[in-house]
Amino acid sequence: MSAPRDDEFGFAPDYDSPVPYMQRTRDYYAAIGYATPYRWAHYTAAPFQPLKKPLSQSRVTIITTAAPYDPAKGDQGPGAAYNGGAKFYQVYEGDTSKEHDLRISHIGYDRKHTSATDSGTWFPLPQLLKASAAGRIGEVAPRFFGAPTNRSHRVTLDTDAPEILARCLADKVDVAVLVPNCPVCHQTTALVARHLERNGIATVIMGCAKDIVEHAAVPRFLFSDFPLGNSAGKPHDIASQAQTLELALRLLETASGPQTTMQSPLRWSENASWKLDYNNVAQLSPEELARRRAEFDKQKEIARGNRAA
Question: Three-class SS of residue 132?
Fold first, then answer.
């Protein structure tokens, strides 16, 4: 179709659609020299746990893929390069009555279009506490949980998801809000959500990678068409963050069955060209691909050393 015809019909450009993260990731790693394509988790059906009680009476927790800031682990600040040394490999927990400094330098969020200066975009605890104070939910659970972003399906399914379930059950959690940041994070939270739902806990994922989450067949998914790292709303935009959480809560109440996706009406910007950038090999020179391969190998060694320790 020609541009004039697009203008006549009011068509959006073809690239203004959800970013195909699975294909981008396959193409990217092939381009930097990894011959075996990654196997993304794929299911065609999902478990589903209806709310056992109204949200106004429910205990709600957060499951995040962000990591607690540790000054001993190198640069984790806004704009930091990928930092394999900041990764974590076991489920962790935090007291929801306290403030927390969680960061995302250890994962592959969209560093070109995400400032990473506002943790409210990846850790919606402040908004959840406001929802509790307003009576929108019954209460915030005493603990939130960190889910390791393992590329290993087996580790997530056999170790991390059961550990998160056990802690949720100990806290008598009714509902879990899961918030991923990177491509693998979205897969991780999808697998955890499935496990929780099979064991009686209702879930909703707030995320930005539609293809990955839907490929894994989850119960409920709130899709925000934003750059990775902004699953809980726009940075420094409290209204956006409040609206995003409210949409997730509404989805918990209204989904009639599994594999229900709701798309946020919010747009990142009027110009959707940001969708062309993330790990797009068509826009990367051979020199840049070589540099990225070297950096990836370096960070993988750092992360391997931390895992062994």
Answer: helix
Give residue-wise pLDDT tens across range 179-224. Answer: 999 999 999 999 999 999 999 999 999 999 999 999 999 999 999 9
Contacts of 308 (CB under 8 A, 6+ apart): none
Nearest Cα neighbor of 209 from 63, 109, 61, 64 is 109
From CA 176, how far away is CA 134, in angstroms rounded? 19
- Bridge-partner residues for 60, per DSSP? 140, 175
Rg (CA), the chain: 19
Which of 77, 49, 92, 18 minimizes the C-alpha distance to 272? Answer: 18
- Give how far Cα 25 sits from Cα of 64, 109, 128, 164, 184, Å: 22, 12, 32, 27, 10
If residue 18 lies in a helix (H) or strand (E), which one and from where to where?
none
pTM above 0.85, yes or no: yes
Handedness of CA 170, 179, 111, 42 (dihedral sign): positive
Closest CA to 281 of 31, 18, 8: 31
**What angle do helix axes 125-133 and 238-254 make, rounded to 10 degrees?**
70
**How many angstroms separate the CA atoms of 295 and 281, rounded?**
16
Q: Judging by DSSP bridges, how do beta strands 102-103 and 67-68 pair with one another?
A: antiparallel
Determine the Cα–Cα distance for residues 252 and 54; give it in Å rounded to an integer: 10
Q: Which two tokens stand for residue 80?
A: 């930091």
* 80 touches 105 (CB < 8 A): yes
Q: How far apart are CA 223 and CA 244, in angstroms?
A: 9
Helix, strand, coil fractions of the chain, as percent rounded to 5: 40, 15, 45
